Amino acid sequence: MRKAATEVLGKIGDPRAVVSLIAALSDEDKEIRKSVVWGLVSLSHAMQMDDGKKQRILSVLS
Question: What burial letters (b/e) apply to 15-49, b meaning 16+ CB within 10 Å?
Answer without folding.
Answer: eebbeebeebeebeeeebbebbbbbbebbbeeeeb
